[in-house]
Structures are given as structure tokens and as C-alpha cells.
Amino acid sequence: MYRKSLVFACLVWSSTALAQLPPVIRGIAPASSPVTGGTLVTITGDRLRVECATGLCRGPAVSFGSVSATVVANDEHSITVIAPPHSVGSVDIFLMRAFDGHAAAVASQAFTYQPKTGKFSYERFLIPTLIQEPAGLPGAFGSLWQTVLTIFDPYGPQMRATQSPDADCAIPCISQATGMAYATPVFSVGPGGSAFLYLERAPQALFPDVSGAEQFFANLRVRDLSRQSQTAGTEIPLVRDRNAKVRVINLLNVPTDRRFRRKVRVFEFEGINGTAVLATLYSKAPGIGLPLGTKRLTLSGATINEDGYVTRPAAAEFDITPEEFPMLVGEDNIRVELTTTAFPTTATRIWGYVTIVNNETQHVTLVTPQ
User: Fold this and answer.
1) Residues 6+ apart with CB under 8 A from 119
2) 65-108: per-residue pLDDT in tens?
3) How far apart are CA 337 and CA 320, in angstroms?
4) What number is the average pLDDT over the span 5-22?
5) What is the pLDDT of residues 237-279, one digit of tens each?
């Protein structure tokens, strides 16, 4: 009797432990779809059938990027879904736990949404800010701001930078055969002057293995024209699509001194307006985990053109001031955490930074994600 009980207990423990192991994604076929979606996609792997909690078992939800897919069939080793519509580009595929909306398994950049024409040799970059006025944009304390975008191709073939890759280099587009292009304000920009830029290199005989945007170099610089003899400006990162952060961003060592003004900017990469982000300010002091203040943001301004390309990101911004966050008094430096709060939380890709401007010199410093 004792031996039978022991065997039964071991079987129960083994099955319970097995049920708690996470699912594993081993394959996705097909691995692409038009931007309109509707493609039947089969995800293969292990332990894909059910997840259990509090005595209830149900199949996992599936998300393509931050967009939920419809599950049509599911067993232990496969899930068949209908790919949802999505903007052009590569996305992560998530198996989401039905009980809390968090990812149980992720296949990174495993699925590609193709343009309607079937062409896809571009890489997407986020331009965080682009000033359209050639003469400069007036700012605080007599400042006059200008941005200069430089794109360099050391191989020197024909290259294109555009917001509408399916167009025949129609405006807005930069087309340059000399290997260097300086962008003038031709972009459709969203909140804070933000926009997405798609880069492509045309095929050539001399370097047949070099394609897409991998060998491009791009630089975005902002400068104060009223003080250009004092500073050459500040470089602002151009963010490659694959470098967007999933769910959480940390911005460290943000000064709170009143000599500086501080602005937080955050961007969403899927073109989904209404994305919710919680900004939390923390003390830099070690061992102190209580927040100094929070700010709830709703990102907006995203646009997707008729070919499925996101041309402007959803974005939001706010100022860090002692008036809005009284608990900053006495703090020298703080940490800013940006977290997406809407389902599916782990599938939403964001990026953000803090601009710190000296009120006396107008010198700009950036704090970017760690």
C-alpha cells in the first residue's frame, strides 16, 4: 500500500512539474504575410496545448508584435492562427499566458509583414525629432534650433531614404548616387517632429553581397544657431527598428538641478495610438525603492499609409519639474522608468529618452535607455 501511494505521489508530482514547464517555440511556417494579414500560420514546438492555474486549463493566446491573432487549432505540438493585419516589418511572436497577459514564450523577429508589392529590402529607423524650419525653430531664452540629418554610404551606390518605400522615390524621398545625403525638411512628422525613415541600397555589381541598410551610417544632430560659435550641437540617436525596447525602459542619472530643464519623450513602434505608458521617477540613492512620483501617458499621433508603412510613431512627452513632482526636492539625480501598461504588456515595443538643456548655455545633453 505504501509503495503504491509513493508511486502515485511521484506520478502526480511529475505531471505537475511538467505542466509548469514553459512552452517552447521551434518553428513558424509560413514566416511572412502581406500587411493585410489573413495568412494561416502554424507555430510548432513543445507544450503548446494548455496552461494551468488555480485548477483551470486553457490554451495560450498568440500575439504578432502587439496585435492579437485568432487561434483556429491547438494541440500539444502546434498552434494554427490567422495572422492579424500589421504594418510593414519584422515582429516578435508571443505566446501569452491567458491568466495574466505576460509572455510564456517568444520567437524574436520571427515573422515578417511584406508590403503589398512584395518588395522588402528596407530597414526602418526612428527619427526622434526633426525640425522642419530651414531657418531654425525659436526656443526658450533666445535659442534658435536646427537639426541636420546626414546619411552616408561608404560603398557609394544609389541609395534611397523614404517614408513610402513602395513609391518610385516620390516625395518625401532622398535619392543620392554620390554616397552622402543631407536631408532637408521633406518628412511628414508627428509629435515632437518624430518620424520613421526607411533606408535602402540599390543592387550593384561591385558589392553584390551588400544590400539593405546594414552598411549605412546615419547621424542626426541638433544645434542652437544663436550659439553655434560655442557648440557644434548634440547628436541624437537614430533608432534601428530592432533596437526598440520591449515593455520597459530605464533612463539613469537624470539631474534635478533647477539650472536645467528636462523633457521625457517616449515613442511606440507598431503605429498603435492609445498605447498606455506609466512613467515612474525613482531616487538614485541606493536601497531606496519608493517612487518619487508617477505620470500616466497616452501615446498618440501614429500614422500608417495605405501600403502598410508606419510613417509616424505614436508618442508622448512631459516635463520633469519640481512643481509637478514635489518629492524631487533634495534629490540630485533620479532614475526614470517607462513601462507599457496595456495588454499585451510584453509585446509593445517602445523607445524613449530625456533631453536636458542648460538654461544658461542652452547646451543639450541626452539620457538614452540602458
Assistant:
1) 165, 166
2) 878 888 888 888 899 999 988 877 788 898 877 656 566 788 88
3) 13
4) 50
5) 888 887 887 778 899 999 998 899 999 999 998 888 888 999 9
b/e code 185-199 from CB counts within 10 Å (16+ = b): eebebbbbbbbbbbb
101/95 Cα distance (integer angstroms): 9
Question: Phi and psi of 2, rounded to 5°?
Answer: -65, -40
CA-closest candidate to residue 219, choices 198, 200, 238, 247: 238
Name the strand (E) or helix (H) holding 273. none
CB atoms within 10 A of CB 97: 20
Helix (H, G, I), strand (E, B) or coil at 9: helix
Residue 349 CA to residue 334 CA, distance in Å, equals 24
* CA 169 – CA 13 distance, rounded (Å): 63
Cα–Cα distance list, 265 to 56, 152, 283, 317 (Å):
41, 27, 20, 4
Neighbour tally for 60: CB within 10 Å: 23
Count of CB atoms situated within 10 Å of the CB of 211: 15
